[in-house]
UniProtKB/TrEMBL annotation:
Membrane topology of this protein: Peripheral membrane protein
Listed name of the protein: Sorting nexin 10
Low complexity compositional bias, start-end: 175-189
Alphabetic keyword roster: Cytoplasm, Endosome, Lipid-binding, Membrane, Protein transport, Transport
Biased composition (Basic and acidic residues): 157-170
Length: 201
């Protein structure tokens, strides 16, 4: 084995950059950027960046729990009627709780095998579309959805250059193949668009 294969796998997850999004004339909500950087074979993309709101985290936890009934999932930060999106302390407390939730989830191999988790972290699909994809009711697979989102949201030319370089390396040396899970993005920084305002808080 080469030293490259002996590297320990890691998954870095950051929940950051809370932003207020306007849902309609009367309602607003806060969403958060979820940044993933990993070398884990479990992930289709090695770097990704999406925006999610609290109710989508609630949906994720419910779905993961229903598919892994023997596992005690970590709790989400409590949804209190006293939450004030204009209070930076409230917003940051929730952000920290969401990050701790994801950090614990990503340490469990069984939960990591759930396709919903990967769609949640690496696409901007709605819960309804994630369910349809996982159930085989869409024309695209889970990996297709992740790659499509990544290609639509690529903002850094260096990623394209790395992909071309990887392709040239693969063409010249067929044995130097990657994990087979698709091209990876190694850029640490990324920009995210706001998610569509179709979900409640």
């Amino acid at each position: 084995m080469t030293p490259k294969h002996e590297k320990q796998e890691f998954v870095t997850v950051l929940v950051r950059d809370p932003r207020t999004q306007k849902e309609d004339s009367w309602h607003s909500y806060i969403d958060y950027e979820i940044f993933i950087h990993t070398n884990s074979m479990c992930f289709t993309r090695k770097t990704s960046c999406v925006r999610r709101r609290f109710r989508e985290f609630v949906w994720l936890r419910q779905r993961l729990q229903s598919n892994a009934v023997l596992i005690q999932l970590p709790e989400l930060p409590s949804k209190t009627p006293f939450f004030n999106m204009n209070n930076p302390h409230h917003v940051d407390h929730r952000r920290q709780g969401l990050q701790e939730f994801l950090e614990k989830i990503l340490q469990d191999a069984l939960l990591l095998s759930d396709s919903r988790l990967h769609l949640f972290l690496q696409t901007q699909l709605s819960p309804e579309d994630m369910e349809a994809c996982v159930s085989g009711q869409t024309k695209y697979s889970v990996a297709d959805a992740i790659h499509k989102f990544a290609s639509l949201n690529r903002r850094f030319p260096i990623e394209d250059e790395e992909r071309k370089k990887d392709k040239n390396d693969a063409d010249s040396d067929s044995e130097s193949s990657s994990s087979g899970l698709g091209p990876s993005d190694d850029s640490i920084s990324c920009g995210c668009k706001a998610s569509p305002a179709s979900e409640e808080s």
